[in-house]
Design goal:
Helix content is 40%, strand content 12%. The protein has 16 helices and 17 strands. It has a 17-stranded parallel beta sheet, with no helix packed on it. Helix 11 links the parallel strand 11 and strand 12. Helix 4 runs parallel beside helix 5 and helix 9 runs parallel beside helix 10. The mean pLDDT is 95.
Length: 456
């Protein structure tokens, strides 16, 4: 049984009603419910009386150090068998981490711990690592996003990683680890027997030099399927250094996120080698990189290669113009794997959209999700898309938010979308404005066709 509440201010009466449920439910999620330190004592007592509890989430409650320690004390009861614990954004600091070593020692059942968005700092991380080093700790997932960590945290964390044989997921996004810190971290991972599946180091101060370290990890960890390195200054040199690992026969990477990594068309050329060689790669993001029309042309060529099985490509904010759309269109007409294409925040215009529609109108296309947010599309482009919706039977989601579309363009789209032959399920139109009369018509269309959601 699950007790799940979100964004609800709990009165004393409501709180009294919930306490008996906390003592018997297997999953308790009280996210952003205004819980403060005063109610943590009640939670602590309830946890001791609930041997069935396997998951506890108190996301976005201002528990503070004292409140978190009270909750952790309850979890240390011998009857407690919690497996997943989320204390994300709970106003925990380094001083409040003193209880963590004893909790990790007392809870061998715990396999997922999320402490993201708490200012633990390096001192708090060191205390956490004391617990990680305990043989009774069997964590499989550790999430430390936005924890105010620096290079100093990487040595104790690397030491802990060397001892972990169960760790599958490590999230360190948005911490200032720096080049030296990440190198230390990679050394720890390289010497660990853990079957790592997901490594996330977005906005951690990585440089191109770190890609050599990561290359070794990717090649050595055949279990690794999710690598997210966005918002780091890797550059084309870094991508070149990373590719030998990606191309390693042992690499089975499925997801590669490289958004805002200072990649150009030259870096795309290296990524193309990976796309052609690795059928395991399903998701690629090069969003926020100035790859330009030449870069996307190279990627499209690889997407037509029989060895490429990519299912999702994010090319938002890539300095693309209408000139690249002919190549993208040809790829979409022939590709039988790509299910999601995000081309938002590019200067495609109506001409570019018309080209895309020509490719997607061909028989046998498989694309399901198309993102064209802020692409300078007008009502003219909506006419092309309206025709596409009648010809295409795979497209399920279309996002046209923040374009130069009037109520007339919206009506053209909806006229096609409401037809029984159209399979579109979601039409997203944020920052698009129309009259009350049009609004009434859209509501009537949704009532007539419940499978279609118009989101604005």
């Amino acid at each position: 049984m699950t007790l799940e509440l979100h964004y609800e201010e709990l009165s004393d009466t409501r709180w009294a009603e919930l306490l008996p449920l906390m003592q018997k439910y297997e999953v308790v999620r009280l996210d952003d419910c205004g819980i403060t330190e005063q109610r943590c004592r009640d939670i602590s007592l309830a946890l001791r009386d609930n041997p069935a509890l396997t998951e506890l989430s108190l996301y976005s409650n201002e528990l503070g150090d004292t409140g978190v320690q009270l909750v952790l004390q309850g979890l240390q009861h011998p009857a407690c068998k919690v497996q997943k614990l989320c204390l994300q954004n709970c106003s925990l600091t380094g001083a409040g981490c003193r209880t963590l070593p004893s909790v990790l020692r007392a809870l061998p059942s715990l396999h997922t711990l999320d402490l993201s968005y708490n200012a633990l700092g390096d001192a708090g991380l060191r205390l956490l690592c004391e617990g990680l080093l305990d043989p009774q700790c069997h964590l499989e997932s550790l999430q430390l996003d936005y924890n105010s960590l620096t290079t100093a945290s990487c040595e104790p964390l690397a030491a802990a990683l060397r001892t972990k044989r169960e760790l599958k997921e490590l999230v360190l996004n948005n911490n200032d680890l720096g080049e030296a810190g990440v190198r230390t971290l990679c050394q720890g991972l390289a010497e660990s027997a853990c079957p790592l599946e997901s490594l996330r180091l977005e906005n951690c101060g990585l440089t191109s030099a770190n890609c050599q370290d990561l290359c070794g990890i990717v090649a050595a960890k055949s279990s690794l399927c999710d690598l997210k390195l966005g918002d780091n200054k890797l550059g084309d040199t870094g991508i070149t250094a990373l590719c030998p690992g990606l191309l390693s026969p042992s690499s089975q990477l499925r997801t590669l996120w490289l958004w805002e990594c200072d990649i150009t068309a030259s870096g795309c050329r290296d990524l193309c080698r990976v796309l052609r060689a690795k059928e395991s790669l399903k998701e690629l993001s090069v969003a926020g990189n100035a790859v330009g029309d030449e870069g996307i042309r190279l990627l499209c060529e690889s997407l037509l290669d029989p060895g490429c099985r990519l299912e999702m490509l994010w090319a938002k904010s890539c300095c693309l113009t209408a000139a690249c759309c002919q190549q993208v269109s040809a790829m979409l007409a022939q590709n039988r794997c790509l299910q999601e294409l995000q081309m938002s925040n590019n200067h495609l215009g109506d001409k570019g959209v018309e080209e895309l529609c020509q490719g997607l109108s061909q028989p046998g296309t498989v694309l399901q999700v198309l993102g064209l947010v802020d692409c300078e599309v007008t009502d003219e482009g909506c006419s092309s898309l309206a025709s596409l919706l009648l010809a295409n039977h795979s497209l399920q989601e279309l996002d046209l938010s923040n374009n130069c579309v009037s109520g007339l363009g919206v009506l053209r789209l909806v006229e096609s979308a409401q037809q029984p032959s159209c399979n579109l399920e979601k039409l997203v139109l944020f920052d698009t404005y129309w009259s009350e009369e049009t609004e009434d018509l859209l509501q009537a269309v949704e009532e007539k066709k419940p499978s279609l959601k118009i989101i604005s």
